[in-house]
Design brief:
This protein is 49% helix and 6% strand. It has 269 residues and is mainly α.
Amino acid sequence: MVPGGRSAPFPLQDTVFQGSVLGPHLWNVFAADVRDAVIASGATEAVFADDLTVSKAFDLRVGNEEIRDRMRQCQSAVHGWGVSNRVSFDPGKEHVLMLHPLFGDGADFKLLGVVMDAKLAMGSAVDNILKKAAPKLKALLRTRPYFSVTRMMRSYAAHILCLLEGATGAVYHASRTVLERLDRLQDKFVSEMGLDRRSAFLGHNLAPLGLRQDVAMLGLLYRCVHRLAHPALCRLFPPAMAPAHRHHTRLASRRHDRQLDDQRLTSRL
């Protein structure tokens, strides 16, 4: 109802509105066989609600143009499924890009709220975080004459620190040069409070961002080792297989039985 008026009543036929209880389940059933078109192209699908991501690993000897052509063939197969099932895809949300630290190619894209670049350097993600956090910090510092340091610390944690740490899992692998831009924003706040990193940590429990990121990732690894994390994360960090013959050395005696598989050592370059 729009202020003062109502539309004429009409029956709903073969329609499930977004946000309804049955909507997600009926959509999952309806769109389940789109994966057949993806698999037939030799790719892998990942579905989140009504978003479809298709990925495929290629040998480094395959050029970007050839990769782009193959992925467009897969895209055409998915579009064929859409025609058969009366589903249309938003062209503005369709992108073909290559992810690689050296040969990555394609425009920035957003994945679960994080801006990603094709080379995964995460500079764009940090830019986006600072774009949101810097104005908030500027506004917070204007209130400095009216609040104690403790109150300012609480406001910082509630409104700004959550932005700086919201994408820790996505940006943690970035270079120290990239991540230091986030550190400088927090250092600016600490300095404005008349503190340094040590006093902010010991007196107000505000650890440097680098330390907080390390602790957060250690917590993630702990949950993966104990199978408390999401299955996808557990597959990303698989446990190491126990050696068939273990020598009882002093080093081996100090190792626990929860080692993670270090693929850098087990894989062949």
